[in-house]
Write a structure and sequence with these properties.
- With about 325 residues, the chain is α/β, with parallel strands linked by helices.
- The chain has an eight-stranded parallel beta barrel with strand order 1-2-3-4-5-6-7-8, surrounded by seven helices.
- The protein is globular.
- The relative contact order is 0.16.
Length: about 325
């Protein structure tokens, strides 16, 4: 890639039409997420209709066999206690306590599993300092059991606070922590350059939130071009890069780029979601690549499921087939 925004991914008129349809579909699903009737229906019937395809269970006890099975297939995993938007300090501390317990259980079970968490689940909406103290406790505990914490990225309005907390953790000497950047946001190229002196461990995603044209690319082709630009910069400069995508064209581009530039397979991995493209996950493992499967659990699975439905029409069709049955 020779310039910011250039791309080796070709386009055609049918592809452009499909992308436009998918964008309308995605916006419709994300807008429906806040609809009270939709929420009530999905929360009542979602697990029976197929949410269990994307969520490992409602408790960590239910998730453990799923994580072990994936490990046995050669797949690394992370897990997340689903939830966000906590506005009670005691509850936020309780979430941190739960993550510490999960880290101990991961060690006891011998799982190849790390933790991904949302700062709003740990009290970010109550203040940056509260979230920092909670996540610091989880990161410090993870260090004692040889584990790693990934701080997920949420809506664009929370990027500054998230990156500030990540920087504070690194300044406090924690190397077992990474964060996430979203290719859909205009600001991300600048954010990446600002982070590079830290030699960070970063995950790159396209972005699962409904963002305005003021802050984010609206066309899939634009997001894809930015994704490739950011991926190459990360692969060149970061200590470790997690390429989070199910897009086979992007995966092929990354494989070709790393081969041409002599980037070892210990410097990156592909990350995918539990229940989506499992055959592709196993195929990449057989080719010798590291693959991590994001495998969340918890009773607060509603928003997670709705974002998965928004990302791919095939996911909604899966749930609709469950409804028909």
């Amino acid at each position: 890639m020779t310039a910011h925004g250039s791309s080796t991914l070709g386009e055609n008129p049918l592809g452009q039409v499909s992308a436009s349809v998918n964008l309308v579909f995605r916006k419709g699903i994300l807008m429906a997420t806040s609809n009270r009737w939709v929420s009530r229906f999905v929360r009542r019937y979602g697990m029976r209709l197929g949410a269990g395809r994307f969520v490992a269970g409602e408790t960590f006890d239910e998730a453990v066999p799923v994580l072990r099975r994936l490990n046995e297939q050669g797949l690394r995993t992370n897990t997340t206690l689903l939830g966000e938007g906590v506005r009670d300090a005691t509850m936020a501390r309780g979430v941190a306590d739960t993550y510490c317990d999960v880290l101990d259980r991961i060690a006891a079970e011998g799982l190849q599993t790390n933790i991904a968490l949302k700062l709003t689940h740990l009290g970010l909406d109550l203040g940056e300092d509260i979230a920092y103290e909670n996540v610091k406790r989880v990161v410090a505990h993870a260090a004692t059991v040889g584990n790693f914490i990934r701080i997920d990225m949420e809506e664009s309005a929370r990027v500054d606070a998230t990156l500030a907390i990540y920087r504070r953790l690194r300044a406090d000497g924690f190397d077992n922590v990474g964060t996430v950047l979203q290719a859909m946001l205009y600001r991300t190229a600048r954010d990446l350059e600002d982070l590079l002196p830290l030699k960070p461990n970063l995950r790159l995603v396209k972005g699962a939130y409904l963002e305005s044209a003021d802050v984010a690319y609206q066309k899939k082709s634009e997001v894809d071009r930015n994704y490739l630009y950011l991926a190459e910069r990360m692969l060149d400069e970061c200590s470790f890069t997690a390429i989070a995508t199910h897009d086979e064209r992007i995966i092929a581009h990354v494989i070709d780029y790393t081969k041409r530039h002599g980037i070892g397979s210990d410097r990156f991995e592909f990350q995918m979601l539990y229940g989506i493209r499992p055959q592709l996950q196993r195929d990449l493992v057989r080719q010798g690549y590291r693959v991590l499967v994001a495998t969340p659990y918890g009773s607060e699975w509603y928003f997670y499921l709705m974002r998965r439905l928004a990302e791919r029409p095939a996911n909604l069709l899966f749930v609709l087939r469950g409804l028909a049955r």
